[in-house]
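Hey, does this match?
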Amino acid sequence: MPALTFQDFLLSAPGQLLLEWEKAAYSELTADVFGSCALQVGMPQLDTLAANRMQAHWLIDPRGDLCDPKFTLNRIVADPAQLPIQSESMDLVTLPHTLDLAKNPQQVLREAVRVLEPEGRLILTAFNSLGLWWLRQQTVKLGCRPYLPTELVPISLYRLKDWLTLLGLEVDRGIFGIYAPGFRSLKRLHAWSWLNKAGDRWMPQFSNLFLLSAVKRLPGPRIVSCESMQKLPAKIPAPGVPAASSTTHSTLLGKKL
């Protein structure tokens, strides 16, 4: 059975639908991320930083031969697992399918977090192993043509969130997208777009794609707002010491020592 590359997949009907959805999703989430430098790692076929207004945009292109000539980013041909970028120098890093197409996704993620500044934002997209598209891909074992890229190894949403947490990132937003079955016709895929609203409401875990947005947090004390301070108890007893009631407190104050 011939292999299906990611480039060839993007030329197919589901690949075109993926590009439509991810262009809109990245535009929505990157438009209001501010700073001076943004970095996209992988997938040069889509400019995930097009809506972002930072002064400097950079692209890490693993191969160097698939980049759209109209691509406006400054391009560096390099291995995503060994980024030639200074640590803590980027305010925004995007990973469009960089992890589920990588041989060592954990190392790629560690590198992305390394170059991200504290309080910087990381946004990634990935295929969902619980989606109907991945289910369709399993028919390859029966001799059918591949539906998704053959090098694809999807990572579960829960595992990705665990990885992000272990690396000091806090996931604060997620978007699920495309619930259509594994059709090969773009017309039929669009005809099932009504399923997107139902899926977002009732079964987001079965989307074909998902996006995660996370912020790199620094270890240390957490800032508490005035509103939160008002909700704290007036006095916190030491461990093993029962809290005194107001009556007992008054009695002790009036007792002669």
